[in-house]
Amino acid sequence: MKIDLKPNEVVVKAGNSDRLDNGSKVDGKFIVTNQRIYFKCLNGHAEKYDLEIMPSEISEVHFFNTGFLSPNGLNLILKGGEEVKFRVKQRNSFGELINRMY
């Protein structure tokens, strides 16, 4: 997997993730850089599931549990009203990074 970083862009944190989309789960990588957030899917449907989010597009960051005792859900609410949900390990550190960006 390769992402094209912009000039002066560096990866701050990355990890395995699942994007939760309308009841389906898409395996991929969740990548936070110093300029934006990326989700790159691993299943070959890049045109449908790959995502790039600018910090200026984010309205709120919420945490949620994906199971009864699974505190690993990260919900990004965009200014347009769209919600993008992910299951990530270390959601607290990802959430802190994202909160500092916008």
Summarize the structure in words.
There is one protein chain. With 102 residues, the chain is mainly β. It has one domain: Pleckstrin-homology domain (PH domain)/Phosphotyrosine-binding domain (PTB) (PH-domain like, Roll), CATH 2.30.29. It is built from 2 helices and 7 strands; from the N terminus they run E-E-E-H-E-E-E-E-H. Strands 4-3-2-1-7-6-5 form a 7-stranded antiparallel β-sheet, covered by helices on one side. Strand 2 and strand 3 form a beta hairpin. 17% of the residues are buried. The mean pLDDT is 92.
Strand tally, please? 7
The low-confidence parts are: none
Q: With helices defined by DSSP (H or I, 4 residues minimum), what is the helix count?
A: 2
Structural class: mainly beta
Features:
102 residues, mainly beta, PH-domain like, 7 strands
Q: How are the SSEs placed, and which strands pair?
A:
Elements: E1 11-21, E2 24-33, E3 37-41, H1 46-49, E4 51-53, E5 58-64, E6 73-78, E7 83-88, H2 91-101
Antiparallel strand pairs: 1-2, 1-7, 2-3, 3-4, 5-6, 6-7
Please sum up the structure shown:
By secondary structure, the chain is mainly beta.
